[in-house]
């Protein structure tokens, strides 16, 4: 089955018992048992729930992985992945990952002596040089949030496998419609399903997909033991959102290309980060490993432009955290999504105070450009 069909019919398709086309919401905490030790396969909804099972099977199908897990947020999924490690282990981390990913490693897991090193994973030599005895995983985001830096998933996975370390890929920006890290050699794929997979800015959820049974058993043990599961209603909402992923992503891609060209040509814009540009570092790798460039664009305005006035001048594009919804969202990483990253590190990796991140929605692309044009004029 091709992915457009799999998005609609993958996982558990509807309800066998009644023929309902939509998977039922099993809003239950527990299950009646026939006798001691005799049950339907479900005992308690932290351990397993049929609606959550349906969305977990769906993401495993879409990512071509062995088993999927649905969590209460992207960060709950990331935390579960980090719980695979023990005191003394070290993780190599892409150097401009989402601020919350950095924060949970730096402020929570480091307290348990799980160490990390920030590495520019777009540079394979730097990845190779960073591998020491204690390194147990390479955690990459590609493209990164917010600088759209591209890492070669196949090459990094190869280095990781040679050194017996896991490759973990946060695939939030691409979704399995555009990029499949497990097929490229990764062991674990993570999503903030809050974003494109949900697609409508109406839920918080996360996914973790593994490529083998052993990792599946370990993640299930962690999920059941620590309890960061996705509830039945949000599992259902997520199934609903995923059905339209292909049409949404096609429109996201088309709109982003149009908006990125406008920003590039505008004299009030200093710099634009968009992997679709041939001049973007890693453009060729992106072309090789993904089926599109996604719809996140970061840009810097000329320093004489009043940033606050620019945000105020926008009438259609919404100033807010998050991305990947049908509506366009704009944010200021230094004070919003990446505020948890210390100032010095932000400067070092390029998250300057003037940087703006735009998540291009699926509105009419000409309306979006008109909105940006008017706000720039207002802020000049
Ligand atoms: C790339 C990426 N990964 C993970 C997360 C965290 O996901 P959540 O907000 O669903 O916990 C985000 C949130 O913005 C993100 O952008």
TrEMBL record:
GO MF term set: transaminase activity
Q: Which family does it belong to?
A: Belongs to the trans-sulfuration enzymes family.
The entry's keywords: Aminotransferase, Pyridoxal phosphate, Transferase
Q: Does the keyword Ribosomal protein apply?
A: no
Which cofactor(s) does the record list? pyridoxal 5'-phosphate
- Please give the superkingdom of this protein's source: Bacteria
**Naturally occurring in which organism (per UniProt):** Clostridium moutaii
User: Entry's Pfam families?
Assistant: Cys_Met_Meta_PP
Q: What is this protein called?
A: PLP-dependent aspartate aminotransferase family protein
Transmembrane region(s) = none
Lineage of this protein's species? Bacteria, Bacillati, Bacillota, Clostridia, Eubacteriales
InterPro entries this protein is in? Answer: Cys/Met-Metab_PyrdxlP-dep_enz, Cys_met_metab_PP, PyrdxlP-dep_Trfase, PyrdxlP-dep_Trfase_major, PyrdxlP-dep_Trfase_small
